[in-house]
Amino acid sequence: MRLIVCSARLLPFLVQSLAGHEGAVEFHRTSSDLGSVIQEGAALADRTRFRVEYMKYMRLFPYFIDMEYRFLRQARIDLIVSDISPIPFAAAKLIRAPSVGISNYTWYTAYKSLLEQSWLEPLYRAYEQMDYFIGLPGAKEPLWGKKEHLQTGLNLRQITNYLFELPGMNREIAFAVEREESLFHSEFPKGESC
Q1: Engineered SS bond to 57: which of 5, 34, 111, 188, CB 3.0-4.6 Å?
Q2: Bridging pattern class, strands 80-82 and 132-135
Q3: What are the Cα distances from residue 163, in Å, to 11, 166, 169, 171, 172?
Q4: Nearest-CA neighbor of 164 among 144, 154, 179, 183?
Q5: How far apart are the first and last CA of the chain?
Q6: pTM confidence score
Q7: Angstrom distance (rounded) from CA 167 to CA 165
Q8: Where do the H-state alpha helices sit in 47-154?
Q9: How far is CA 105 from CA 100, 133, 144, 158, 165, in A?
Q10: Rounded to whole angstroms, how far apart are CA atoms 146 and 114?
Q11: Alpha helices in 78-171 (DSSP H)
Q12: What is the CB-side half-sphere exposure of residue 91 using CA atoms within 13 A?
């Protein structure tokens, strides 16, 4: 199994954090999400500047999806896991690979108070391509995950490996999930979890 870690601004930190795993992990620089646009000297959103930056980002959004598609296809990726860029979900659909989102938010919900609904449609369309969504504590998201939506609780004590097979995949994928049975509000369908 190959693991490719994709990032933009955090790539140097991730490379340093995963030092010693060079043979098992590859790294790839990707486009960056817009993120937040904060007022200078304050911890508040700069709505005016954000709208300008969002429009620039959305003009490039199809290009970013195309670049991600080309990378995924060339690298022959079998599974995409994202926290929580919308771009990989749209590209995963194009290569017909299953996708998993893991987060306590999406940019779609983060931007809802800053933009009109019509401006958010490209993000919504990208996120709705997600096959599985694992909502971390605090997530107040639409029911992303066409195949399954899982809401997790918080547990910092016990880490257990769980195996599940994604439909259409010929091998099991191991996930280390921090969990206790009582903390999950939803489970993967019978036959897909162990």
Answers
A1: 34
A2: unpaired
A3: 28, 10, 13, 10, 6
A4: 179
A5: 20
A6: 0.76
A7: 6
A8: 47-75, 87-95, 107-110, 117-127
A9: 14, 11, 11, 24, 25
A10: 26
A11: 87-95, 107-110, 117-127
A12: 28
* Binned average pLDDT, 10 residues per bin, the chain of 194 residues: 87 88 86 86 88 96 96 94 95 96 95 94 97 92 93 60 46 37 35 33
| Amino acid symbol at 20 | G
Does residue 149 contact residue 142 with C-beta atoms inside 8 Å?
no
Can you read off the two tokens belonging to residue 130? 């997600």
Strands 99-103 and 132-135, sheet pairing: parallel
CB count within 10 Å of CB 144 equals: 25
